[in-house]
Amino acid sequence: MPTFTKAALHRATATIFRAAGAAAEHAAQVADVLVDNHLAGHDSHGILRIPEYLKSIVDGEIVVGASPQVLEETPTTALVSGNWALGQVTGNFAVDLAIAKAKKAHVAAVSVVQASHTGRLAAFTDRGAAQGVMVFMAIGTVDRPMTAPFGGAAAVLGTNPVAFSVPNPGGAPVTLDIATSAIAAGKVKVAKAKHQQLPPDSILDREGRPSTDPQAFFDGGFLLPFGAHKGYALAVIAELRSGPMAGADAYPGVFMRSGIFIFAVDVGVFRPAAGYAQAMEKTLGRIKAVPPAPGFDEVLLPGEPEARLRVARERDGIPIPDDTWTAVCTAGATVGVDVAAVAAA
After folding, report:
1. Exposed / middle / buried, residue 186 (Cβ in 10 Å: 0-12, 13-18, 19+)
2. Helix, strand, coil shares of the chain as percentages rounded to 5?
3. What tens-digit pLDDT sequence spans the chain (345 residues)?
4. Strand, coil or helix: what is 159?
């Protein structure tokens, strides 16, 4: 399994998307997000996605030269069209708009339609936390349905992720970013690339039988919701916020996708910054002070494992499974890029 520096992966990724027709600024944004996902330990949303993005460009599902735009807005709201641009570019644009509005008016809600795949939501919500703004983000079904409802025997929902990032003046943001399915589809791809089995109760095969084989998912199987009815209920809420509420169905465009719902709150709206910082330190300290249970070294906060892994991977490098690296190199060659040579430069 090869290991790469942050700079090498960023250089290779940006070069691929520039060669595919993206503006240099947009290619850099995609590279920023994909590499950041690796640093956080979420390899399922890193360069593994490059082959599918290049295919989507060829198929017209991603309009590589497009840019997102505001269709309608008020001081506290905005309706944004991604115009099928690269999803990471749209994610940055929409979240930055929500952050700016929240910093002026304390709260903001942004709807995004015609959005391509954005990937891991915390890459965007953390942008708000870094500026003192709590950001919530939800996405509903995209591409094909892949998750069954609780009590159902067929897929009807996506992985329907939700994410929150809460500013923490004393350290890394407190971040929740979860798929409402028992496992994210990208993590199934990672397991396949690593030739690993899946955790039990994650997927069913196409006959509705439990399976731990990643290939069973790609052969027509489907995911299960996490926590049975609880994950299913949260998935429905994500579906309704990012679909009917966001208005995605009114802007089908290239093909049908759900939209994105973003809500942002300036954490200084209810109390002075110093009071907020003190309260966060006290509350998080109280949680961290709980004695660890047998088998655990300490109590971790949401987002803390990612923050620690980020430090380690920036120091030691980012491991990439052989199958993933081969697929990326093969995909890069289709746009005239010698990926291995660029990474090694």
Report:
1. buried
2. 45, 15, 40
3. 899 999 999 999 999 999 999 999 999 999 999 999 999 999 999 999 999 999 999 999 999 999 999 999 999 999 999 999 999 999 999 999 999 999 999 999 999 999 999 999 999 999 999 999 999 999 988 767 889 899 888 889 999 999 999 999 999 999 999 999 998 887 888 888 888 999 998 888 888 888 999 999 999 898 999 998 999 999 999 999 998 898 888 887 655 677 999 999 999 999 999 999 999 999 999 999 999 999 999 999 999 999 999 999 999 999 999 999 999 999 999 999 999 999 998
4. coil
Contact predicate 261/138, CB 8 Å: yes
In DSSP notation, 137-159 reads EEE---SS--BPPTT-SS--B--
* Strand pairing report for 107-113 and 77-81: parallel
For 1-64+310-345, CATH gives: 1.10.1530.10
Residue type present at position 45 = H
Question: What's the pTM?
Answer: 0.92
- Sign of the dihedral defined by the CA atoms of residues 60, 62, 67, 68, in that order: positive
Chain Cα centroid distance, residue 188: 15
The CATH code of the domain at 66-181+225-289 is: 3.30.1370.60
Task: Of 22, 96, 18, 117, give the one whose Cα is nearest residue 66.
Answer: 22
Query: In the chain, where are the structural domains located?
Result: 1-64+310-345, 66-181+225-289
Q: Do domains 1-64+310-345 and 66-181+225-289 have the same CATH topology?
A: no
Distance of alpha carbon 281 from alpha carbon 190, whole angstroms: 36
Distances in whole angstroms, Cα of residue 127 to Cα of each of 45, 54, 99? 17, 26, 8
Amino acid at 159: T
Find out whether 324 and 51 touch, Cβ atoms under 8 Å. no
Task: Give the tokens for residue 64.
Answer: 């590589």
